[in-house]
Design goal:
- By secondary structure, the chain is mainly α.
- The protein has one domain (2-91).
- Helices cover 64% and strands 8% of the residues.
- Strands 1-2 form a two-stranded antiparallel ribbon.
- Helix 1 runs antiparallel to helix 3 (48-91).
- The N and C termini lie far apart (59 Å).
Length: 101
């Protein structure tokens, strides 16, 4: 799906809004409940900011790998269509031209 942003077109997959919503909702939940004893963690637990940073990095990596995987699947489907078309053309019989008699 392409969406216009000013003069540029941005490629945006169907999973992008859902992923953004999920990340936003989880970060809001963690921020709202950061004073809760469960969210503060036990002894030796990483800081909440560090955990959120790690979560953001992991989410970005997941989004990037998902994009690469989806692009690879689209490319594979396109290549398969080209190969099927070329095989269909290869099956056509070539007849010599008829001689004028």
């Amino acid at each position: 799906m392409r969406r216009g942003t000013g003069s540029a077109l941005v490629e945006q997959g169907p999973h992008t809004p859902a992923l953004t919503c999920c990340v936003f909702a989880s970060s809001c939940f963690i921020r709202c409940h950061s004073r809760h004893p469960i969210a503060t963690g036990g002894e030796g637990a990483p800081d909440l900011t560090e955990s959120l940073t790690n979560f953001a990095i992991n989410s970005a990596a997941l989004a990037a790998l998902s994009w690469v995987f989806a692009r690879d699947l689209r490319s594979q489907a396109r290549d398969r269509r080209v190969i099927e078309r070329e095989e269909a053309l290869a099956r056509l019989q070539v007849c010599p031209p008829a001689r004028a008699g």
